[in-house]
Structures are given as C-alpha cells and as structure tokens.
C-alpha cells in the first residue's frame, strides 16, 4: 500500500468543525517565556518541508492579545472569526471577518480581540524565519509617543 496517500500524518483532507481542524493539534501560542501575551491558541494547518510557507490559525479570546513584536519575516493575515484591532507600525485598525492584514518586515505588530468577541485569523509565514524581537523599554516609550498607539497598547505592554 502506498502510504503517501493515506498517511494520517499528512492527510489529503482535514475536516473543520467550527474553528477546530481534524488531526490538527491545538497548541499554546508560544513557548517563549519572554513574550507578553494573553489567551491565544495556535493550530498549524499547513506545514511541509516541500512548502516554503506555513499557514497557521490563531485565536485570541475576548480581551486577549498577541505578543507585541517585530522580525525580518512577513505575515499575511486574514481574519476568520470575530473582531478586534491590530497595530502595524504606527497604524491601529479595526479588523473584522475576512479583512486582510499585511505585516511588512521589521514592523511592530500586535493583534487584540474585542472585549466581547474572540479574534481568529489565518497567518501565512515563511517556513524558515527569524526569531521575533520584543520591544525594549525605549522602544515602548517611542511607540507610546503616538496617542493612538498608546491607547491601543493600554496598560498591558507597560511592563
Ligand atoms: Mn509576528
């Protein structure tokens, strides 16, 4: 039998129920202990050595947020559930179902779910990528000079 066709490790079709995919592990968002984030889960939907990209689904619970970070690699994001806001560089945008967000290289970014709704999104990245950089105290002071950005970051990123 040719197990490349039916291998459970790499099935041709994985069913979805809600925003959970069959045979896709629900993982913690990050193992990085330096990172500041709140109530985010991660599912890796597509990842294969023969692909140069990975497609992941992240879900931020109501009131939660992803890590404020930057890195050389890019993100291509599509909102699949709920609503919230994102920070990309100095821009804060309201985001909702099917909105697209591009995060260019070396651009500070963070995703926040609305207080009463989760925020779920697909995120495409390079398979091989650099490690995220976290903001220094000086970076945070610089970011907070912009009133809109300061309001977006709230008290959470103050540490
Ligand atoms: Mn990132």
Describe this structure in a few short sentences.
The protein is mainly beta. The protein has one domain (15-158): Jelly Rolls.
Features:
mainly beta, globular, 10 strands, two-stranded antiparallel ribbon, 8-stranded antiparallel beta sheet, binds manganese (II) ion, 159 residues, 3 helices, Jelly Rolls, disordered N terminus
Description:
By secondary structure, the chain is mainly β. The chain has 3 helices and 10 strands. The protein has a single domain, classed as Sandwich (Jelly Rolls), CATH 2.60.120. The strands form 2 sheets. Strands 3, 4, 5, 6, 7, 8, 9 and 10 form an 8-stranded antiparallel sheet that branches. It has a two-stranded antiparallel sheet with strand order 1-2. The chain starts with a helix and ends in a 6-residue tail after the last helix. The protein binds manganese (II) ion (MN). Manganese (II) ion binds next to loops.
